[in-house]
């Protein structure tokens, strides 16, 4: 990942299989929504219309080099990237998700990091909300 073009090249193949094979799988299994960021995918589906295990099996049969895993919602909540998405009847509620290993650390203003990565000294860190 040290080469500036690495992120571009690492997106070419996922976009290719997404546009040529994954779209067909999602349509065939009647999924409601598909969101991808790098290697994280969020699928929205209705349990009475979509067999998510079949979708996972189809994804894993696309190529021997990529294996997909499944994390289903628990207690009507799921974490995707840094967001917790909760279902409440017909509404979705969004919150900030912090991994249990998050330290709340910040990059001090006097560090050698680029200025855009440094924090204002008035910030004391982040707190996990539940």
What layout of secondary structure does this protein have?
Layout: H1 6-28, E1 33-37, E2 40-44, H2 52-60, E3 77-80, E4 83-88, E5 91-96
Brief write-up:
This protein is 25% helix and 20% strand. A three-stranded antiparallel beta sheet has the order 3-4-5, with no helix packed on it. The chain has two helices and five strands, in the order αββαβββ.
Task: Walk me through what this model shows.
The protein has one domain (about 5-95). The protein has 2 helices and 5 strands; from the N terminus they run αββαβββ. With about 130 residues, the chain is α+β, with helices and mostly antiparallel strands. A 3-stranded antiparallel beta sheet has the order 3-4-5, with no helix packed on it. A two-stranded antiparallel ribbon has the order 1-2. The relative contact order is 0.09. The longest helix is centred in the first third of the chain and has 23 residues, at about 5-30.
Structural classification: alpha+beta
Let me know the average pLDDT.
Answer: 84
Output the strand order for the largest sheet: 3-4-5
Q: If helices are DSSP runs of H or I spanning 4 or more residues, what is the number of helices?
A: 2
Largest sheet: 3 strands, antiparallel
Q: Helicity, in percent? A: 10-25%
Low confidence ranges: 121-130
* Domain module count: 1
Radius of gyration: 19 Å
Order of helices and strands: HEEHEEE
What would the principal axes of the Cα set say about the shape?
flat
**N- and C-termini, Cα separation:** 34 Å
| Proportion of beta-strand residues | 15-25%
Structure summary, number of beta strands: 5
């Amino acid at each position: 990942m040290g080469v500036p073009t690495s992120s571009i090249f690492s997106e070419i193949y996922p976009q290719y299989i997404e546009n040529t094979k994954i779209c067909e799988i999602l349509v065939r299994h009647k999924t409601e929504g598909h969101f991808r960021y790098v290697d994280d995918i969020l699928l929205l589906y209705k349990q009475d219309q979509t067999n998510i295990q079949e979708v996972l099996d189809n994804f894993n049969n696309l190529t021997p080099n990529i294996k997909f895993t499944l994390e289903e919602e628990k207690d009507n909540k799921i974490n995707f990237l840094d967001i917790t998405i909760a279902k409440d009847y017909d509404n979705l509620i969004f919150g900030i998700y912090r991994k249990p290993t998050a330290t709340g650390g910040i990059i001090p203003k006097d560090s050698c990091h680029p200025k855009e990565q440094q924090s204002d000294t008035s910030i004391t860190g982040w707190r996990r909300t539940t």
